[in-house]
Amino acid sequence: MAKRERARALLTKRRVRVLLLICVLVTAGLIFFFSAQDGATSTETSDGFVRMLVKLFIPKYDEMTWSQRRKLWNDIGYYVRKGAHFTEYAALGFFLRLLARSLNLRRAGLIAWACGALYAVTDEFHQTFTAARSGMWQDVVLDSAGVLFGCLAALAVIPLILRRRRRKMK
Fold first, then answer.
1. Three-class secondary structure of residue 79 per DSSP
2. Boundaries of domain holding 112
3. Is residue 160 part of a domain?
4. Is the pLDDT of residue 45 over 90?
């Protein structure tokens, strides 16, 4: 019986690792997809999100002057773009940290953060080849901070996962 339980546990571990690897690859793929958009398409994507936020949270938008609207639009657009950078890299950091932990790597957090930060560097380099886009070292810093945040968030989740697993075993 114990042999069967160990085999089942090993199979479950492998499935979790594969699922986490898929999450890392999908997140990295989405980041690549958004970075591959030319400047006009990227702006259109963020403007659509800004439009939705303005309609939701600024009820008197229609009463504003054109210059007030434009300033608001530019300000919100900047934060939406930077927030998107941070969020997508936080997700990458989260999944990288969980994957590194599942592989029982020594210094899993450092390895996860370094991999995410390196991906941020390559992503900004990639943008230098995309029409009307540029790579910015400030975005590398922001993206790396997002990866760090994701790694720390995963660190908070790991004890919950382990506690749940222990309860199932009882």
1. helix
2. 2-37+85-169
3. yes
4. no
